[in-house]
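[job 4471] stage=fold_predict status=RUNNING
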Amino acid sequence: MIIGCTGNYRKQEFYTILQKVHTILSDKNIEFIISSDLEKNTDFLTPRDYKIMEFSQLVDKCDILFAIGGDGTILSTVRRLEQNMKPIMGIHIGGLGFLSECTEKNLTESINSILNNDYVVTQRMLLEVQITPENDAKQILWALNDIVVDHGYSARLLKAEVHVSNHYLNTFEGDGVIISTPTGSTAYSLSAGGPIIYPSMDSITITPICPHSLSARPIVLRPDETITMTFPEPYDGISLAVDGQIKVRIDDQTQIQITKASHSAQIVSLPGNGYFKTLRTKMGWSGKVR
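[job 4471] inference complete, writing structure tokens
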């Protein structure tokens, strides 16, 4: 087995956990390749026994990828993989994350599970967004959590006309619209009043952000629907965000089309953990209290 590693090299904790992972795998004679991203930190002196490789080459060679950081690190790693997906085990810096079940506390146990093939790879649906401005220079991006279209720096209400597979749904008037995957249902969509959806399901949720009409509510759609969004009124400064990390400034002449991507993210699930356990922890559910 060959294990690759990437992560949030901007956080000091990344290097502490990286060294622990390196020590554990070295003791077991497992080939461990680290993304050259860490070399962007010029203050870090890379140990001579670290095997460093450019990210795309690392991905081609490894069997599984460790991502050290927060859930945002996993989101960015999935996006960087594009269609060349590999199983990702998130190693969370700090507490437990929604997408990562491994922390520094259970690091040795988690790595042993990987080496013993005692884990499950769950397929997570991705969204594909095609952004077509007036000059037809189409841009395609993928999201694991969500695509958010909002008013950007403007304080004006944004009108977004949404069609589902050529059927008119609604013109949402408010701060914007969130299009989310089941994985992203516990992210921005949840805080905007959207439902929690089991992450291995395939569905697309449309959640209006602070709608001007109280009757505007989230709607859950089949995964094979095509969602298109246009803007019926002139508007300057519209923003489109992918997983809250990539932002594209668009205008009212831009056409947006969102579909289920043809490929899926592969997220490692470890024994003894589970989605409902993570959900209870992150949501602070304490059960029946009297």
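[job 4471] summary: The longest strand covers residues 255-269.
[job 4471] exit 0
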